[in-house]
Specification:
Helix content of chain A: 10-25%
Number of strands of chain B: 14
Strand content of chain B: 15-25%
Largest interface: A-B, 64 and 69 residues
Strand content of chain A: 35-45%
Largest sheet of chain A: 16 strands, antiparallel, barrel
Order of helices and strands of chain B: EEEEHEEHEHEHEHEHHEHEHEHEH
Strand order of the largest sheet of chain A: 1-2-3-4-5-6-7-8-9-10-11-16-17-20-21-22
Oligomer: heterodimer
Radius of gyration of chain A: 36 Å
Shape of chain B: globular
C-alpha cells in the first residue's frame, strides 16, 4: 500500500507541472506498478492455497494409512500424555525416567540331611540356610546415566537371616565412565571384583540355587567385593580381549581370604574353630599401596562358529591377610574360567541352547605364626598341643588350596533349563594339621575349612517368563571326615520393574 | 585365524609360521607398480638389514589382481631371509590393487615373527598403534537386525563395511550379547537400530561395554530408525500381566514398506553427515531405493486387493504394520499374550474363532513352534505359511524387496487357494 500511496503522491506532483507527456508516462508507470502489485498478490494467494492443500493432505494421510487398524490399539497412541492423578500408581520404566528401577526377590524352601546347613553344607551367604524357607535376598537395582560423562548403578540387598534378623547389604554402588579415550573405562565405588564368572553375577543370575563351593571358600560367602576402582582396557585386537586392573580395599567380610576379621555372615567361621586354627585378627591396617587388594583379569572371546561362542578368562587377586603377628602375610588367588555356549540358529526366546561353564582356582594363603598361649592367658579356651599338653604354638606356613566347578546347562525347550554341576575343593595338608592338637577335649584332624569335599547338583528350572522362575535342585554332598548329605531346594524368584540387559 | 583385509588396513596371524602381519596402504599413491608379481623390500632385524626381492604368490585363487574382498599373499617365501632373527620387520612394496585398494599404488607390510613373549607384547603394542592410527576409508556400520542391514546395504553400497548382529532365523528379542559384538561396536562409526525396544534385552549392555562415543545415544552415528514412524499399539499403561509388551509400541514396524522408506532416509542422512564426500552417492541410493519401493508397493497392494479384510492367524503379534498396509486383518494369535507360550485352552478358543471368522491361513516365523501351528491347521483345515520379518529368514529372500515379494506372493497364493 505504501508503494501505491507514494505513487499517487508522485502523480499529483506531475499534474501540477502541467506536462502531458510526463503525465502519460507516469500514468503508464502507475499502471505497471499496479499490475506488478496485483500479480504479486495473486502469486501469494496461489502459494498459500497450495500450502493449505498440502497441509490438508498431510493431515489426512495417517487416517488413510490406518484403514483396517485395530481401533483399540490406536487410541492410546493419539493421546499419550494423559495427565497423572494422585490415585494413579507411579510407574518407572526404561526411557521415561532418569533412572531404571528394578526389584528382584529370591526365595528358597527345602531341607537337608545335614544339621550344619548354614556354613556347613551351604557355604554361600545367599544360599538356602535352614530347613524350611530362606529369603535369599530381595535386591533393589537402580541404574541410569548420571550426566554425559558417567553412568551409575546401585544394588541394595534386603534380607532376613536364619535367626529372623533383618539386614541390608550394599552389594554394589558405582559410577562408570561413558567414553574415555583409548578404549579405557573406569569404574569406581563399591563393586563386585572382576574375578571369573560367578563372582561378578548377582545371585539372581546364577544358574543354580547356591554359590559354587570354590567361590564361597576362596572368594568368601558373599563373594569378593569392596570399595575400590577398576580400570579396564578393551584391547584393539580383531577378537574380543579385555584387560581389567582393579584396586580395592583389602579388609572386611567381603574380602574373606584377605584382611577379613574372620566373621562373615553365613560363613564357615562363625561356629567352631577359625580358618587354619588361628584367629585372623591381626588387622595391620593400610600402611602403603601394598596393603591394598589388587585384582587383574584378562578375558578373551571367540566366535567358534555362527552358533558357538567361547569365552576364556584368567584372573588373580593378591593382597595382605590378617593372619599371624608379623604383619607381612599375603594371599594370592589365581583363577581360570571357560564358558562355551551353543545356541540354535532358530532360537526362540533364546532356546534351545547348551552352555558349559567351568572355573578353577588356586589359593596360596600365608598363615602367620600364632601362639594359643596368649588366648589361654586371656582366659579363652585354647587349642592344646597334645605332645606338650600346653597351648599350641603354630608356626608360619603357606597353605595351598585348590578347587573347581564345572556346570552344563541345557535349555531344551522354551523356558526350560536342565542343569548339572560338579563341585570339588581340596587343600594340601598343612604342617599344623599334622600336629597332635586338641580343642575342648576332642582331637583335631584336618581343618574342615580346607578339607576335601565334592558336590553333585542336578537341577531343573522353569522360566514362566523372563521375569519369574521356579527352580528345583538336589545336592549330593560328600565331605571327607564328615560324610555324605542330601539336600533338596525349591527356589522361586520374581522381578519387578526394569530389567537390565544381559551380559554374555 | 580369519584373514580379512579392509581397504587400507589389515592384520593377520599365521599359526603355521608364527608370523603376524600388519599392513597399511597409504592414501596417496606415489608411483604405479613396475610388475605386479614382483615385490621388493627391506628386512630390518635386530642386528642387520637385508633387501628382499621375490615373487609373491597369492594365498587364495590364481592370478593377480584377484577379485573380491580377500586378497592376500604368501609371505612364507620370505621367511628364509630372516629366520635367524628374533624378530624382523619386512617392508614390502606391493601393488595397492592387490591389497584390496582401488587404483594403482604401493602399500606397506610389516611381518613380525613370534618367538618370545617380549616380541609378542611389542607386537601387541604395535598392532594397537596401527589400529589407533588407522585412516578411516569406509564407514564402519553395525546394524542390529537383518532387515535394517538390508536397507543399509542398499544405501551404503561399497562405501561401507557392514556387520549384522541378529541372525535372520532367530528371535530378535533374545540375541546373545556375544563379546565379539563389543569389538564390532567399539570400531563402529554408525549403529543402526530399531529404537523401539526390540533389542533392549541385549543391546544396551553391549553399547556400555563398547565405550564408543560415536554411537552412544544421540551421537551422530546413533541411527534410531523408529523416529518418524507412527508406532502402533503403544500401551497407555505398562503392565506385564499383559505379556511382553513394549513401552514404545509394537516394534515390528519394518514389514510396512512405507516405514522402510523412512528408515532409508535416516540412514542416508547419517551416512551423508559422517561421510560428506559421498553425500550425493547416499542420497541418490536412498532415492533409488525409495522409488523402487514405490513402484513395488502398487504391485504388492494390487496382488492383495482381492483379499481385503480377510482374517489371518499369526503365532506372535508382529504383523500389525503389514496387515494395515495391505488391508488384511491379523488379530488372532496362537500366543495368548505376547511372549507367553500357547495353552491348550487358548488354542481351542483360537480354533473356534477361526471357524467363526473363516480365517484359513496361519503364518509362522522361522524361530516359532511350527508344530503348534500345524495342529491348529489340522483341526481347522487351514494352511501354515512360513513367513519371516527378516531377509534371509525364509530361503530365497536375500534383501528387503525380495522378502516383501515373497510375503505378498506366499500370502496371496495361500489366500487364493482357500477361497
Amino acid at each position: 500500500m505504501t508503494v501505491l500511496a507514494s505513487a499517487l503522491g508522485l502523480d499529483t506532483c506531475v499534474l501540477q507541472a502541467q506536462e502531458t507527456n510526463e503525465v502519460e508516462q507516469l500514468k503508464k508507470q502507475l499502471q505497471q506498478m499496479q499490475e506488478n502489485f496485483e500479480r504479486t498478490q495473486r502469486e501469494h494467494r496461489q502459494q498459500m492455497e497450495a500450502l493449505t492443500q498440502k497441509l490438508d493432505a498431510l493431515a489426512r494421510q495417517p487416517q488413510a494409512g490406518a484403514t483396517t487398524t485395530v481401533a483399540a490399539a490406536e487410541s492410546p497412541a493419539e493421546s499419550p500424555s494423559s495427565s497423572w492423578r494422585p490415585s494413579d500408581p507411579i510407574r518407572v520404566g526404561r526411557g521415561s525416567a532418569y533412572m531404571d528401577i528394578g526389584l528382584v526377590g529370591t526365595f528358597a524352601v527345602g531341607g537337608s540331611t545335614a544339621d550344619d546347613i548354614e556354613g556347613g553344607t551351604q557355604l554361600g551367604g545367599h544360599d538356602p540356610n535352614q530347613r524350611g524357607f530362606t529369603i535369599q535376598g530381595v535386591e533393589l537395582n537402580l541404574m541410569g546415566a548420571i550426566d554425559p560423562y558417567f553412568r551409575g548403578n546401585a544394588n541394595v540387598l534386603f534380607g532376613v537371616d536364619s535367626e529372623g534378623e533383618s539386614f541390608v547389604e550394599l552389594e554394589e554402588a558405582w559410577l562408570e565412565t561413558i567414553s574415555l579415550p583409548g578404549n579405557l573405562q573406569v569404574r569406581a565405588g563399591q563393586y563386585l571384583t572382576e574375578f571369573g564368572r560367578v563372582n561378578t553375577q548377582h545371585p539372581h543370575s546364577w544358574s543354580f540355587v547356591d554359590s559354587p563351593l570354590v567361590n564361597a571358600r576362596f572368594l568368601g560367602p558373599d563373594g569378593l567385593r569392596n570399595p575400590g576402582a577398576r580400570l579396564s582396557w578393551l584391547i584393539p585386537t580383531p577378537f574380543y580381549s579385555e584387560l581389567f586392573l582393579g584396586v580395592q580395599n583389602s579388609q572386611g567380610e567381603t574380602a574373606a581370604s584377605f584382611r577379613s576379621s574372620g566373621h562373615s555372615h553365613g560363613g564357615e567361621e562363625e561356629e567352631g574353630l577359625p580358618f587354619a586354627y588361628r584367629h585372623p585378627d591381626n588387622d595391620r591396617g593400610v600402611g602403603g599401596i601394598g596393603d591394598m587388594l589388587f585384582t587383574p583379569r584378562l578375558a578373551t572371546s571367540f566366535d567358534l562358529t555362527d552358533n558357538q561362542v567361547l569365552l576364556l578368562g584368567a584372573s588373580t587377586a593378591f593382597g595382605p591377610n590378617s593372619s599371624g603377628m608379623t604383619g607381612d602375610t599375603t594371599t594370592e588367588i589365581y583363577g581360570l574360567d571357560m564358558t562355551w555356549k551353543w545356541k540354535s540358529p532358530n532360537a526362540h526366546a533364546g532356546f534351545p541352547f547348551v552352555m558349559w561353564q567351568t572355573e578353577a582356582m588356586l589359593r596360596r594363603y600365608d598363615a602367620g605364626m600364632f601362639d594359643w598361649q596368649e588366648e589361654a592367658d586371656a582366659g579363652e579356651e585354647a587349642i592344646i598341643d597334645d605332645d606338650t599338653t600346653l597351648p599350641a604354638t603354630l608356626s608360619r606356613e603357606t597353605l595351598t588350596d585348590y578347587g573347581f566347578y564345572s556346570q552344563v546347562l541345557w535349555g531344551f525347550r522354551k523356558g526350560w533349563v536342565a542343569g548339572l554341576r560338579y563341585d570339588f575343593v581340596d587343600g594340601e595338608e598343612g604342617d599344623y594339621e599334622k600336629m597332635n592338637l586338641s580343642f575342648d577335649g576332642s582331637t583335631l584332624g584336618r581343618d574342615p575349612e580346607r578339607n576335601q569335599r565334592w558336590r553333585l547338583s542336578p537341577n531343573l528350572t522353569w522360566y514362566p517368563s523372563e521375569f519369574s522362575k521356579i527352580r528345583l535342585q538336589y545336592n549330593y554332598d560328600e565331605r571327607r571326615d564328615i560324610g555324605s548329605d542330601h539336600s533338596v531346594w525349591l527356589q522361586f524368584e520374581f522381578l519387578l520393574g526394569a530389567h537390565a540387559a544381559h551380559k554374555f | 585365524m580369519k584373514i580379512l583385509i579392509p581397504q587400507q588396513q589389515f592384520t593377520t596371524f599365521s599359526p603355521l609360521t608364527m608370523n603376524f602381519i600388519v599392513g597399511r596402504c597409504p592414501l596417496t599413491l606415489p608411483s604405479p607398480p613396475v610388475g605386479e608379481r614382483v615385490a621388493e623390500g627391506r628386512v630390518r632385524g635386530l642386528r642387520r638389514e637385508i633387501l628382499v626381492r621375490g615373487i609373491l604368490s597369492p594365498l587364495r585363487g590364481e592370478g593377480i589382481p584377484m577379485e573380491g574382498p580377500c586378497r592376500f599373499y604368501d609371505y612364507r617365501q620370505l621367511s628364509a631371509h630372516y629366520s635367524s632373527m628374533q624378530s624382523a620387520r619386512v617392508r614390502l612394496l606391493l601393488p595397492l590393487r592387490s591389497l584390496g585398494g582401488r587404483g594403482e599404488g604401493w602399500g606397506e607390510v610389516r611381518v613380525f615373527r613370534l618367538r618370545s613373549l617380549t616380541t609378542f607384547l611389542s607386537l601387541f603394542v604395535a598392532a594397537m598403534f596401527t589400529f589407533v592410527s588407522a585412516a578411516q576409508a569406509r564407514l564402519n556400520v553395525v546394524a542390529t537386525t537383518p532387515d535394517l542391514a538390508s536397507i543399509t546395504r542398499e544405501i551404503g553400497g561399497d562405501k561401507i563395511e557392514l556387520t549384522t548382529m541378529a541372525r535372520p532365523t532367530e528371535d530378535p528379542h533374545f540375541v546373545d550379547a556375544r563379546p565379539s559384538f563389543i569389538v564390532k561396536l567399539n570400531k563402529a562409526d554408525v549403529l543402526i537400530h530399531g529404537g523401539a525396544e526390540l533389542e533392549s534385552g541385549w543391546l544396551p549392555k553391549l553399547i556400555e561395554q563398547a565405550r564408543n562415543a560415536r554411537i552412544i545415544s544421540a551421537a551422530k552415528g546413533d541411527v534410531n530408525c523408529c523416529e518418524g514412524v507412527k508406532m502402533r499399539e503403544v500401551p497407555d499403561q505398562l503392565d506385564r500381566s499383559k505379556g511382553d509388551i513394549h513401552a514404545k509400541g509394537n516394534p515390528h514396524y519394518l514389514v510396512d514398506p512405507e516405514n522402510a522408506k523412512i528408515v532409508a532416509h535416516h540412514i542416508a542422512d547419517a551416512f551423508s553427515n559422517l561421510d560428506a564426500v559421498n553425500r550425493e552417492f547416499y542420497v541418490a541410493k536412498a532415492k533409488a531405493f525409495n522409488s523402487s519401493l514405490d513402484a513395488k508397493l502398487g504391485e504388492w497392494q494390487a496382488k492383495l486387493v482381492p483379499f481385503k479384510g480377510q482374517q489371518l492367524v499369526a503365532y506372535h503379534n508382529s504383523w500389525v504394520y503389514f496387515a494395515d498396509r495391505f488391508g488384511l486383518k491379523i488379530e488372532l494369535f496362537l500366543e495368548p499374550k505376547p511372549g507367553i507360550p500357547p495353552s491348550p485352552s487358548h488354542l481351542a478358543g483360537v480354533i473356534a474363532k477361526m471357524k467363526e471368522t473363516g480365517a484359513r491361513v496361519i503364518i509362522v516365523d522361522p524361530y516359532l513352534n511350527r508344530k503348534t501351528a500345524e495342529t491348529v491347521a489340522r483341526s481347522t483345515g487351514a494352511t501354515v505359511v512360513d513367513v519371516a520379518q527378516f531377509p534371509g529368514g525364509v530361503k530365497g529372500t536375500d534383501n528387503y524387496v525380495a522378502l516383501l515379494d515373497y510375503l505378498v506372493n506366499a500370502l496371496a497364493n495361500a489366500l487364493a487357494e482357500k477361497k
